Amino acid sequence: MMRPRRRGGVAASTLNQAHAALRFLYLDVLRAQERFPRDGRRSRRRPRVPDVLAPAEVERLLAALEPRHRLVPALLYGTGLRLMECLTLRIKDVDIARHRIHVHDESGERARFTMLPHALARDVAEQVAMVRRQHAWDARRGGGYIALPRSFDRKSPHTLRHSLATQLLRNGYDVRTVQELLGHRDLSTTMSYVHLPDHGPGVRSLLDSSLATVAAASHRSSDARLRMDYAASLAA
Prior knowledge:
The chain is mainly alpha-helical. The chain has helices at residues 12-29, 55-64, 67-79, 83-87, 118-140, 157-170, 175-182, 187-191, 206-210, 212-235, and strands at 94-95, 100-104, 111-115. It has a 3-stranded antiparallel sheet, with no helix packed on it.
């Protein structure tokens, strides 16, 4: 009854949806299980093999882009961010000094840290500075405001306690000692501080090792481009 997808046919998800509808009809509505086709198997989706570029191909791709359009693709390759994660980054989540990015999901419940490539730190800083200037200009004209849910994290006295535990462990103090100092009954509570990254996840971005020349070229041409864009925004 259900045939695999062929060229010009329907997708496996469409076939499976039809299969579920027929199964519901025969088993739940008509109460005629014996009439349900026995060969009605669900269609399996064939695994997709992702396209992968060699480092040299990535370098040529980034070099072919205009400098003002290069930052987002370079971040995608250099950090492993998803597209929407990259496009919705907030300034507070980019730690240029420690070369790390705090990534949140849409619900704000799950989060992770990823590395900020050293080769892109200067470009990201320039982008932040340009956006700040643009925001200041918009604010003087009565605009530049938007609702930002969860944009400001609440800091409580517990934050200082968490900071102490994290820094003690990073400075080499024994986890049992820290457990006693903080009064944790369960060692797993103390161990949770061990996994908090300080300088990113400890992984060096491939952008730093193989694409430093592209990032350098981006910076040399970005200064003039930023000045032109900002001047154009002022004139508008």
